[in-house]
User: Fold these one by one.
Assistant:
Number 1:
Amino acid sequence: MTATPAVPATPAVPAVPATLLHLDCSASPPGESVSRRLTARFARAWQARHGTAGYRHRDLAADPVPPIGAAYAALGVRVERRGTVPLADVRAVAASPGERDEWSLTLPLITELRAAGTLLLGVPMYNFTVPAALKAWIDRVTFPGAFSDPVTGRSLLAATRVVVVTARGGAYGPGTPREAFDFQTPYLRAYFDNLGVPAEHLSFVHAELTRADDVPALTPYRPLAATSLSAARTALAGLAAA
């Protein structure tokens, strides 16, 4: 009787570690910032499930990303004119020390975002839109070709989950008198859609009327504020467990 040859075992594919990039941009300290408290809840729940090894936090208000300058713009234009330039080759395209300095500030942030399985953003509403601290980060990481596969052109963020936690002093949700004043949600939705993040991977959690406890004109809306905050906490718990 002929023995059946043993089938070589298939090598186990190492699991890709879960990663969370957590960005806060509120100018208020943690004890006073609703967006910071909410993102911290999500981060704790995420770490309880996945551990701390893949967790990275950036405080864009305390440690701001430098605004882009003329050298950044010049380098970006030169890269765009060449078509597709892999990130590893961008430094060689830089034509001046200033351009190389801009790239040195930019590459670590791009690398960090590309490595994130989940991006968590804490975004208070300032003057109907996102804080300047977050916009500076967006402007710097959005370098030509940074999130496209150089061979296929497909988005490198197609599998990335993005959780946006907003805190708004007033009410800007659907059906409210100030719904049209919300330039925060539509902007971020359009931005991540343009980067190739699928709509089903982009989640918004809003805490509204966060100033109801200290602005006299909003005092009558304190029950609505409490309901909104409770709903935000529940939504984040579900997203962290997903």
Note: The chain has one domain: 20-70+112-241.
Number 2:
Amino acid sequence: MATAVLDRPTLVLNKSWQPVRVASAARCLIMLWNGTVKAVDPDDYQTYNWEDWSRLRPQSGDAVVQTVEQSILVPEVVVLQTYSKVPRQTVTFSRRNLFRRDEYQCQYCGCKPQSSDLTIDHVNPRSQGGGSSWENCVLACIKCNTRKGGRTPQQANMLLLKKAVRPRWTHLFSMPKHRASSWSKFISDAYWDVELQE
């Protein structure tokens, strides 16, 4: 249970109160303790240093970390105390980001199995000179990937649901889809609609 609470996402705001990333609650509690951030109360925007935050009494249902002596609230939002550069303006090609781009969906049949039942398929197979890139990799369920084998979609007579493209960058691209409702005070809903076409 404690591990799940510490893994919860916390919104990190820049010194100018612009969202820059999401970090784990564990990481944010460490940054709060060492003075890198202040915790934000989303209701009244009041900020708290570690000493003040650790004195707050949790309400029933609040996410807390239980120590030997007390319960410490897990912050939903923190603000950096020094300026943080805006993240690079490209989405890194990675397994996690590919799953995010393709919305955990097989790009051939459209099914949405468990993550463990999805594979990364090279549209132009590596055996035919295809590399690992945004434009050549898609998610495929095991059944479709097996059916396609070492062929191109045309050779296997299979159609892609959509063309594989590099996602447009947004500083919220890697943020989790599941987020605290309090984040809406800092992020417009429009930012959560990541556009994938350039």
Note: DSSP finds five helices and nine strands in the chain.
